[in-house]
Automatic annotation (TrEMBL):
Domain 2Fe-2S ferredoxin-type: 5-94
Keyword Iron-sulfur: yes
PROSITE patterns linked: 2FE2S_FER_2, 4FE4S_HC3
Protein name: 2Fe-2S iron-sulfur cluster-binding protein
Lineage of producing organism: Bacteria, Pseudomonadati, Bacteroidota, Sphingobacteriia, Sphingobacteriales
Amino acid sequence: MADNEKIKVSIDGITVEVAPGTTILNAARQIGGEIVPPAMCYYSKLQGSGGKCRTCLVKVSKGSEKDPRPMPKLVASCRTTVMDGMEVQNITSNEVLEARKGVVEMLLINHPLDCPICDQAGECHLQDLGFEHGAAATRYEFERRTFERIDIGDKIQLHMTRCILCYRCVFVADQITDKRVHGILGRGDAAEISTYIEKAIDNNFSGNVIDVCPVGALTDKTFRFKNRVWFTKPVDAHRDCPDCSGKVTLWYKGEEVLRVTARKDEYGEVEDFICNTCRFDKKHTTDWVIEGPRKVVHTSVISANHYETLKPLPVVKENPKLQEANKHQFERSVRL
Ligand code: SF4
Ligand code: FES
């Protein structure tokens, strides 16, 4: 096969041409929309990620043009590469939807339903998944695992009870920081994220574990309990940072920057990893060049529930891009 030759795969009846070696999940992402399987552990920027959570299961109803036999079991789309002529079913297969429901039930066996007090609520992938595929009740009768909260350094808190063992934070520490001091210790139902002899994670890129965690297991202690994310306003900003790209999202409440995060794409993956100085130490508008409001997918609770203030913030008044974005708001205040 020539280097630039593409192969055809159809997902839920939509055909796309992709490079050989592409996974089913990434082929689906090239199509986009509802047919993209959810992914709790795969992260395109982290090598070796995927294959842990099984939320991305799909049905291969035709293996390839050469061998059209269906695959005997559902497969993890983040780990299965496409073949020419392959036909895949995701939301068009009841079997997949049933299996996904089972996976969510399994993930929720130990994960507490403490969304009302969890900082990740509103941007938690498990919360979204539970909403879309969760059952109303659990069939689990045994005692759940519980853990004490652990401080990992002075800025990050680990709630092991919420961890779904996706390994993303371990890959971040391995690939983005220069020294990994945490990992998954134990196996099976004894597996847990831990630092070796409770060492603090002390590294200028360690804060990225917070952004990649799909649930609220790793949270930002500087933002803890300060606000619900849907009451905050995300604004894109940058600074000239010697250590990272300096491209971030500032989360405003009133005039205060409550937290700084990396910018995330439509799949909840960060666009550029950022350093701890940008994340934890630059919490004033004057530290940043404001670019404009962050676009949040309209289905997200963050964009759904804006409690608009009729008094524009100083940061809005002073910035032409934010003024333009808030035009309707200004017009509304004039009308009122
Ligand atoms: S702490 Fe978060 S990122 Fe790390 S393994 Fe657990 S769920 Fe995944
Ligand atoms: S995203 Fe594929 S197994 Fe987790």
